[in-house]
Design goal:
The complex is a heterodimer of chains A (about 575) and B (about 575). Helix content of chain A is about 65%, strand content about 10%. With about 575 residues, chain A is of the alpha/beta class. In chain A, strands 6-9-10-3-11-12 form a six-stranded mixed beta sheet, sandwiched between helices. In chain A, strands 2-1-4-5 form a four-stranded antiparallel beta sheet, with no helix packed on it. Chain A has a two-stranded antiparallel sheet with strand order 7-8. By secondary structure, chain B is of the alpha/beta class. Among the domains of chain B are: about 140 residues, ABC transporter type 1, transmembrane domain (ABC transporter transmembrane region fold); about 240 residues, Rossmann fold (3-Layer(aba) Sandwich), CATH 3.40.50.300. In chain B, about 65% of the residues lie in helices and about 10% in strands. Chain B contains 22 helices and twelve strands. The longest helix of chain B is centred in the first third of the chain and has 50 residues. The two termini of chain B are about 65 Å apart. The chains are: A alpha/beta (about 575), B alpha/beta (about 575). At the A-B interface, helix 2, helix 3, helix 5, helix 6 and helix 7 of A face helix 2, helix 3, helix 5, helix 7 and helix 8 of B.
Chain lengths: ~575, ~575
Amino acid sequence: MRKKQAGTVRRVLQAIRRYRFSVVLSILFAAASVVLTLYAPILTGRAVDQILGPGRVDFEALKKIIFEFLIVVAATAIAQWIMNILNNRIAYRVVQDVRCEAFSHLARLPVGYIDAHGHGDIVSRIVTDIDQFSDGLLMGFSQLFTGVVTIFGTLFFMLFTNWQITVVVVVITPLSLFVAKFIAKHTYEMAKLQSETRGELTSFVNEMIGSQKIVKAFGHEAENIETFCEINDRLAEHSLRATFYSSLTNPSTRFVNGLVYAGVGIAGAIAAIHGMLTVGQLTMFLSYANQYTKPFNEISGVITELQTALASAARVFALIDEPEMKAEPENMPALTETDGRVDIEDVAFSYTPDQNLITDLNLHVEPGQRVAIVGPTGCGKSTIINLLMRFYDADSGDIRVSGHSIYEITRHSLREHYGMVLQETWLKSGTIRENIAYGKPDASEEEIVRAAKEAHAHSFIKRMPKGYDTELAEDGGNLSGGQKQLLCIARVMLSLPPMLILDEATSSIDTRTEIRIQRAFTKMMQGRTSFIVAHRLSTIREADVILVMKDGHIIEQGTHQSLLAKNGFYAELYNSQFELS
Amino acid sequence: MTMKRLLVYLSAYKKESILAPLFKMLEASFELLVPLVMADIIDVGVAGRDQGYVLLMGAVLVLLGVVGLVSSVTAQYYAAKAATGFGRRLRQDLFVHINAFSYTEIDRIGTPTLLTRITSDVNLVQNGVNMVLRLFLRSPFIVFGSMIMAFTVDGKAALIFVAVIPLLSAVVFGIMLITMPYYSKAQKQLDGILRRVRENLTGVRVIRAFNRQQDEIAEFTDCVKELRHTQSFVGKISALLNPLTCVLINLGLVAVLWIGGDQVNTGRLQQGEVVALVNYMSQILVELVKLANLIILLTRSMACAKRIAAVLETEPSMTEGNGNFSGGPRAPRVIMEDVSFTYAGAGDAALEHISFRAGRRETVGVIGGTGSGKTTLVNLIARFYDATEGGVLIDGMDVKRYPFARLREKVGVVPQKAVLFSGTIRENMQWGKADATDEEIGAALAAAQAKEIVEGKEDGLDTRILQGGRNLSGGQRQRLTIARALVKKPEILILDDSASALDFATDARLRRAIRDLGWDTTVFLVSQRISTVRNADRILVMDDGRLVGDGTHEELYETCQVYREICLSQMDQKEVSAS
């Protein structure tokens, strides 16, 4: 654990290394501003000592002190300002560096990592955690530093003036620490309880309001309200305690401060009576007493903050340290030309090592052939896509395109030769034009319109308020499922590579759009090797090869007629759809 | 108006809401006395060399501290109690209110919005109430109290306070006002970054397929840089806050010392009183900064409060009926008479002049393209929405006259999206019928082709389903939601495209089982697949909100153009006419 934290700290130091000059400057200015801040009360005290009574005011000396005081104030302000600016600069730049590094790393991570990890989790690492770590760590560090300097500086100035009173202060101080610790402990426990209950409530509300329509359909409102009230009452109780305990910090601090103040006041006044202290020095002590406990409370706060920050940093660096895909050697050849011939030989693959998914997969596709992949959900249809596109690498066996093993050419060039339309239509937030030109950013206007026309998307795009310049919401939120699909087809249509991977949509597309999509598909497939995860009978029947998959195996392979004649799993599938009863 | 709406929830805590700020003011008053006591210690105790007086006044200081602590803790307790009580009642009312919403309101406001309202918005408002009760009186009280106390010490010196306080406020609030819009700009930019990361995760395959990784990284870097620029800019402004206020306060101190010196010289002031003035000056700053933070928090809570009030002010558009007439057994089960329906806020009607009748034990297929109005049609039967025109009758009585509970009992719905809730399979099955026995559940599971799912689990019906049914496949979830609707043996069963994730064979077995249910049921089968509806007793063909066909497969194939088109897009002619 400790070792892990040390590792994280080392990574953090590496991240701020580029700004070490700023860090050193910041520390210097912080020290300067603290010392100057502490020096000011001494001058105030001296000034008070020049104001003794009627006719006993030394205006000449007062003027000098005030002049010095003004210089100190100006210097403090400048030092504080420079320190603030430097701290901001370091914090924001580190955030930028780490964020960009984390994001670029995403592009080098295997798809498997992204599939296996919650997107919300990755997003929060790149967005929230990085902020937290930079804020907490850098601000925390600067607070910790100024806090410590303040404590020692105060002690030094006090000792320098009068050691007896300093002892009074030092004796009362532990009380503050004790109180702070007591409160912090209770606050922590209560806050934990509160956030647990809050989490419980949020998850209940998420589930129920998230599916409110179903709740209504089953008339389940009363039961839900009952459960909600039960959790809500518990939450109110826990929040009351958490809020109350945490709100004790300020009054208690003020109280301890008050005690220190009273202690200094009494001891100082008595010392003054005996001539060991001037009234001005007493003023100085009083103003120290007012601020003295503050850094202690801050430091205890900072330590928890530093710990959260370190935990966040650890999460960020864990993401950055995830092993990347195997780098491709410099001289890795590119696939320059292909006739569309694909051979899959003895391929075995599984997502988890202890569970075989695909074993002994063999398939030979001639140039221009259409391969339909059919089978029940979860049988491994999309796995074939993953392997062909090298989103995942096979555990053993080989896949060859025009005789070249796909593991011996660059991923970039392999993917260039494939056009892909997936069932989950993904569009980027941006204009329709940008989305169609996604695979060919330098495409001309005519090319884009032609592709849209060929994908039968032109007519609906034209009807959009701003035509091709219409901004799409995240993931094409303002389009229907069918329209999104057509845009995805147009996107591929623009570059139209020699091999295609198509995943037919199962539902939520109306008949007319469906006919259009099919026409677009047919147009695309002309003369191209295509792999189709098929749901429509017409597609299946027109395929040159049908792969029937079940539980990760190709259990049957052939044409529609030959498979029907075989009267196996395919025949059963086929008949069940069209049986007459 | 907004505030009034929410203040109601505080009314049960009137005592607490008054006592909390009062005790806070009490604490502040004691705090304001401290410098005066100290001045006396110096001017009477030290000047008069009276050790007894010093000790006495010292004791007074400690006493002031103790009394201050007690009143402050009391105030904190009352504030916490009022605020959390307020939060509890508000949250509860909001939840009850949302539960009364019909589909129309849920569509209009949107689920994500409702969720943030009831969680983080309520929390922020609760926090705001708490802070207002604690600080809103205290901070101004200390700031102006210091000034008034200064006047009691010396009128001329107090004028410095009159000058410094507005200047300090101008700096503190000015910087706050200038920076606030930039902070919200930065927040927006951060949201943009979040969106990009999410987009790159969901689109990882497409991005890699098109080899666009480097461009995405470049775009992302630009966004991050923009954010940094905004942050740096606003950081530079807020970096001024500390130095400027520090300069102002210290200039005030210099003035106090100089004028104080003059007053002491002429005998109008004593040394200790100058010290008191110095102390009052330094008290102001801390409280002003607190006040500024409080105002930031307050503006945020106000915005949340407004959003919550908007939800509370939305009245459910549907009222419950109280009819108890049950039509004779001869009334058709479902009648739609010239029904038209327009979604709230939409321009065009979603359904236009629909009329049909469905008898007991009839299986009715509903087919048509997306957006043709299939789901809307069946939603009107369950009265999730009210028809804009025309009437929907169940067993001869208008659905608007049914109490909700009766209606839900009669109609079982399996929605498109297969949603299960966290809890055991049994608990999920009992949603339709709270006292359903294991036998009843078993029968429903069998009919829904879901028996094997339960049998495959070690814990059977006690198997826990994770939130959203994450531990089940899409097909399994669909079959379980069908079973859930069957448990209550509804007289009308609506399957809204709810077999899309099932393979052909299972789908066929399911349809057969539903046809042979052991009780009188009118089944509505909504689907895009011809194969699902073709064997129904009759089929309703929807196109663009209109009913364009009503008949059997054979009839429609001959007479209905739209139906024919759908058929042809899904299978070839030979098969279609093979029946």
